[in-house]
Amino acid sequence: MPDLVLTSYEGGVVVVTINRPEARNAVNRAVADAVAEAVDELDARDDLAVGVITGAGGTFCAGADLKALAAGERSGIPGRGFCGITETPPAKPLIAAVEGYALGGGTELALACDLIVAAENASFGLPETRRGLIAAGGGLVRLPRRIPYAVAMQYALTGAFLPAGRARELGMVNELTPEGGALAGALALAREIAANGPLAVRASKRIVAESADWTAGEVWARNRAACEPVFASADAKEGARAFAEKRAPRWSGR
C-alpha cells in the first residue's frame, strides 16, 4: 500500500500531500492521523517555518471517506477535528494548494489553513445539506469569516459549488494560478513567509487569527502579551542589525 500522506521538505517549508487520488483524496482516520503527525512536526522543528497541504492527482480533497464512515470509522481525531487539524491548526502558517475539487471536508480543510492558493479549475463547496447532512468540521464557522455573511449563508444553505475565481473575488482565495500551478504558487508564497523572522511570523498569525474574538477591554493587553516577546528577542535585534548593514538577516528563532 502506498503512503496515504507524503511529506517533502524544501528551504524551511514542508509539503504535506494527501495521497489517495483513486478516492479523490477523501479522508479516513489513517489520513487524519498522518496529517496531524505532519503538522505536529512542523510546529516542533526549528528548521521548518511554513507548511503547505495539497492533494495528489489533480484533486485537493473530496471530504470525508463515506465508505469508511459507513463502516463506523471517523475522518477526524477527537479534540483535533477533521483531518486532524480543523479544530487545532498549527501555530506556524499553513497554506492550502488547491487543484480540482475541495468539497465538504475538503473546503473545511482549506479554510483551516491560513492562506489558500487555488488553480483556476478549482471548486469549493459545502454540499452536505444536499445529502441531509451538515458541515460539522468548521466550514460553517469559518466561511462567514472569510467571505461576506450573506454569500456564505447562500453557499451553506444551497450546497452550491464556489468556483475558485469567484472565491478569489470574495477574498477567500489569496492567489489564483493556471491549472496545475497551485503547488508552485503556494511554495512561492511559503518561501516569502519563511524568509521572515519566525517568532514575528508566529505571533502575527496568532494575533490575526485570534483578535476577532477579543473583547474591547482585553484587546490591547492581549496584543501586548503577544508582541512583547518578539520585541525582546534576539531575532528583533538581528533584524535591525541586518537592515543597518544592508544584508539578509540570520534568524535564530530566539
Automatic annotation (TrEMBL):
Keywords, sorted A to Z: Lipid metabolism, Lyase
Record-linked InterPro entries: ClpP/crotonase-like_dom_sf, Enoyl-CoA_hyd/isom_CS, Enoyl-CoA_hydra/iso, Enoyl-CoA_hydra_C
PROSITE patterns: ENOYL_COA_HYDRATASE (PS00166)
Protein name from the UniProt record: Crotonase/enoyl-CoA hydratase family protein
Transmembrane domains' residue ranges: none
Protein family according to the UniProt entry: Belongs to the enoyl-CoA hydratase/isomerase family.
Lyase in keyword set: yes
